[in-house]
Each structure stands twice: as C-alpha cells, then as structure tokens.
C-alpha cells in the first residue's frame, strides 16, 4: 500500500502533459499501483476535457486555480478503485524484467547506481537507478537541486518515515537525509535529479568534487 503520493500540483502538471519524460515516468509508475492518485488524475483529465470544449479564450484566474487544487485535496475517499489490469509496465519496457540483473556500478559502501539518462535524449535532468543493499545505509547527503524519487523495490527509512514500494518522494536543497534500507531485500529507487547530490558526512564530503 502506497503512503506517500505526488501533490495535487504535480498531478495537475502530469494531466496537462507539462512534465518532462522522466518525471512523467515516475508518475505513471506510481499511478499503476495507486488507485487513489489514479482517481485524482481521472478527475483532472475530465476537468481538462470540459475546459477544452469551452469556446475560445477561457480565462482561468489564480483564485480558480487555487480552488481546483483545494477541491482535489479535500475530495472524500471514493469507492475502492480496482487495480490497473496487468500489463508490461513502462519500466519493464525500458529496462527489462529483472532490476537486480542490471549492470549496477558500486558507488559508495552499500550503494550501487546505474545512470540511465541516455534513455531520455534531450532531457536536462539526470535519471539514475540506485540500489541500497538490504540493511545498508546511504551516506548522509543533501541536494543541490530537486530530486524526484519513486521506490521500485523494497523500502527505505529516513527521518521523514518509511517509504515502501511505489511510494513517491520529492526532496530539495532544504532536505538532508541518510536513507537506510529496511526489510529483507535490496531497496531500488528511480530518481530524477536537476543537480547532483551533496555529501554531508564528515569524510564523504571530500568526495563532492568527484560527483557528477
């Protein structure tokens, strides 16, 4: 069960087709497993269709925009939505069936990475898979920009709580954390970064000049 979701503004940007391809992929993966967010996007899609049907130059005031966001956030839980029908996910099409068999590169301690930015030509963000060994700890770090992450396998914990499979996380320059993999399997995440992370540990910060 997913506990951490994209905010309403992000879902609105997704519905409008305004997100970059890597960010949209993170949203699609979450929606495939989260009936709650899928229902919210369906509402946004319906609203967008109605607005498109209006005749030219429909103006949307800032107050109307805020009202839409508030309405989506305050919607009562709807009747249970059936899970999406089984199909090959966007991730499987991109990377294959088994994430554990990818050509991982050991980075620091318990962390391995695989940069897949080249699969998104023309995008400015770095797109990277990260694997944290079961029970392992990632180095303490903050961010030089925004980082959007979705958990693909396993779970990790930090000072903000526990993030399970298909949970959605957004971090920025104000966030500093030290993720720990919880459970019996490696934690694998997909992250989209606008800038490299910044290590903050007493010794690991010496490696910052080498991080790209």
From TrEMBL:
Name listed for the protein in its UniProt record: Anti-ECFsigma factor, ChrR
Record-linked SUPFAM superfamilies: RmlC-like cupins
Gene3D superfamilies assigned to the protein according to its UniProt record, in alphabetical order: Anti-sigma factor, zinc-finger domain (1.10.10.1320), Jelly Rolls (2.60.120.10)
Xref: Pfam families: Cupin_7 (PF12973)
ChrR-like cupin domain: residues covered: 100-190
